[in-house]
């Protein structure tokens, strides 16, 4: 049987290349720019013979121009559909990525016994889901809350790509000098305004943030960027000490009632 009916997704002929020799761009970048996959996933598709350029199976390293027609085998869809995205309520004491300084990575918690019993997803846990599972964003060792781990490069790119503008929401308990109760009353409004806009880190100005008092001892931050230990460093810059930090939302996905140390699958109707 011919494999022609399995191929689809023609790259638009007016797609603009973004670099390369003579106006060309690497095929894996073209596929990623179309929003179909990550570059790494594109390389897997090319290696498996699932990508054609102008009707011919493309070898690794192929470059394409704006006039080239790119099609992808439907088997790539099937492969992509098997990739999982997991939402973990990370406890304090675990690092987001690779193990460091004797601390375990949060991914070690993704096992059958920690799967939230109230997960509405019908997906069954399998060890193969751990292959290539990586954090899409950081949450430092002293912080808790929502951590996204995914096998899907499209999700990772959406959350941590250079052009990502997905909101992240945090609840942050603070102290101001010796004041740990009714901090809101003691903290100068002008410094709150600086938290919202006016601070710089590593010599670069921060994007505007939404910062408000959730209660007299706790601030709510909504950011669209995620520099290393950003909230803690922002608070230090205005004389606040963070005593607790919890991420409760990423885009349209909330932590909700997911217990600490447990995880669930991203549902088919959920979007970041």
Automatic annotation (TrEMBL):
- What InterPro entries has UniProt attached to this entry? PsdUridine_s_RsuA/RluB/E/F_cat (IPR042092), PsdUridine_synth_cat_dom_sf (IPR020103), PsdUridine_synth_RsuA/RluA (IPR006145), PsdUridine_synth_RsuA/RluB/E/F (IPR000748), RsuA_PseudoU_synthase (IPR050343), S4_RNA-bd (IPR002942), S4_RNA-bd_sf (IPR036986), TruA/RsuA/RluB/E/F_N (IPR020094)
Among the Pfam families in the record, one is PseudoU_synth_2
**Gene3D superfamilies annotated for this entry?**
Alpha-L RNA-binding motif (3.30.70.1560), Pseudouridine synthase I, catalytic domain, N-terminal subdomain (3.30.70.580), RNA-binding S4 domain (3.10.290.10)
Stretches the record annotates as Disordered:
1-24
| Domain of life from the UniProt record | Bacteria
Q: Which reaction does it catalyse?
A: uridine(2604) in 23S rRNA = pseudouridine(2604) in 23S rRNA; uridine(35) in tRNA(Tyr) = pseudouridine(35) in tRNA(Tyr)
Which is one GO molecular function term here?
isomerase activity
Task: Using the UniProt record, name the top-level EC class of this enzyme in a single word.
Answer: isomerase
Protein keywords:
Isomerase, RNA-binding
Which PROSITE patterns does the UniProt entry name for this protein?
S4
- What range(s) does the RNA-binding S4 domain occupy? 25-81
Q: Where is the composition biased (Low complexity)?
A: 1-17
Its EC number is 5.4.99.21
Q: Which PANTHER family match?
A: PSEUDOURIDINE SYNTHASE FAMILY PROTEIN-RELATED (PTHR47683), RNA-BINDING S4 DOMAIN-CONTAINING PROTEIN (PTHR47683:SF2)
NCBIfam families registered for this protein in UniProt:
pseudouridine synthase (TIGR00093)
Q: What is this protein called?
A: Dual-specificity RNA pseudouridine synthase RluF
């Amino acid at each position: 049987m011919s494999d022609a009916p399995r191929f689809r997704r023609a790259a638009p002929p007016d797609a603009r290349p973004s670099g390369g020799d003579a106006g060309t761009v690497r095929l894996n970048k073209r596929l990623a720019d179309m929003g179909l996959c990550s570059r790494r996933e594109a390389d897997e598709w090319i290696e498996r013979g699932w990508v054609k350029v102008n009707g011919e199976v493309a070898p690794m390293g192929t470059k394409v121009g704006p006039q080239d027609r790119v099609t992808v085998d439907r088997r790539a869809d099937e492969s992509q559909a098997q990739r999982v995205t997991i939402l973990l309520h990370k406890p304090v004491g675990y690092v987001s990525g690779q193990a460091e300084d004797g601390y375990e990575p949060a991914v070690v918690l993704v096992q059958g016994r920690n799967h939230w019993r109230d997960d509405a997803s019908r997906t069954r846990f399998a060890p193969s889901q751990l292959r290539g599972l990586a954090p899409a964003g950081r949450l430092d060792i002293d912080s808790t809350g929502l951590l996204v781990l995914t096998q899907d490069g499209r999700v990772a790119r959406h959350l941590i790509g250079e052009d990502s503008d997905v909101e992240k929401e945090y609840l942050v308990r603070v102290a101001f000098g010796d004041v740990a109760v009714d901090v809101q009353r003691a903290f100068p409004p002008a410094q709150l305004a600086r938290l919202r806009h006016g601070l710089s880190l590593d010599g670069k100005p921060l994007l505007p943030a939404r910062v408000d008092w959730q209660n007299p001892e706790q601030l709510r931050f909504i950011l669209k960027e995620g520099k290393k230990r950003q909230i803690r460093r922002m608070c230090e810059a205005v004389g606040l000490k963070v005593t607790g930090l919890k991420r409760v939302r990423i885009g349209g996905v909330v932590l909700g009632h997911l217990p600490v140390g447990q995880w669930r699958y991203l549902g088919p109707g959920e979007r970041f």
